Amino acid sequence: MSAGWMLLKKFVASPSTIGSVMPSSRFLVRTMMSGIDWSRTQRIAELGAGTGVITDAIDARRHPGSRFLCFERDPMMRRDLARRYPGVDVQDDAFTLCGRLAEVGVTSLDCVVSGLPFANFTLSCQRRLLDDIHQCLAPGGMFMAFQYTRQIQPYLVSVYSGLDSQLVWANIPPAFVFICRKPTTPGQGSPD
Ligand SMILES: C[S@@+](CC[C@H](N)C(=O)[O-])C[C@H]1O[C@@H](n2cnc3c(N)ncnc32)[C@H](O)[C@@H]1O
């Protein structure tokens, strides 16, 4: 089954969990990748990997020897990712991010890339996961997320020192890409 059909089938079965009818376009993937400084990225996590279009781009660019964990809740897509990317540590629920990092001995991350449908989570779940991501990032680490709404932008502005947002029209549906950097010194912004 092609990646497009697989995601569409999953979306029809569970629209709020999957969050999108189609895999991200190459334009969206390129915009997400353009925000990452690969020379400083040794520990990276992807949340909501789906059929792996972003996983593929990260795996092609990352340093040999870097750690790459990718989280996908759907068991079928997770099995497919593990088969296609044997060098990637494929995990399940993104809400277990901090615990899983501790289990595999990764103390902090240089970059988190997210395709999660935050707008479909309850506000308290959104907040909990966004706090976890911020907590797991090393000082100066990057958080990259694509979303179909600006709902999480106020939170991002409140905790990250630099926030760049771009609207990628060449995607179904058009998507906002948020590129954020965690402050290198405490006090430049922290969760309430
Ligand atoms: C909008 S799709 C993005 C897929 C892919 N990254 C892309 O860009 O085409 C969101 C994905 O997040 C996954 N997902 C939703 N909730 C999740 C969770 N709590 N943990 C891990 N993955 C989750 C869904 O199963 C789905 O594959």
Question: Overview of this structure, please?
Answer:
This protein is of the alpha/beta class. Helix content is 37%, strand content 23%. It has one domain (24-181): Vaccinia Virus protein VP39 (Rossmann fold). It has helices spanning 3-13, 15-18, 26-34, 53-61, 75-84, 97-103, 123-136, 153-159, and strands at residues 43-47, 67-71, 89-91, 109-114, 137-147, 162-168, 175-181. A 7-stranded mixed sheet has the order 3-2-1-4-5-7-6, with helices on both faces. It starts with a helix and ends in an 11-residue tail after the last strand.
What key attributes describe this structure?
binds S-adenosylmethionine, single chain, 8 helices, alpha/beta, 192 residues, seven-stranded mixed beta sheet, Rossmann fold, 7 strands
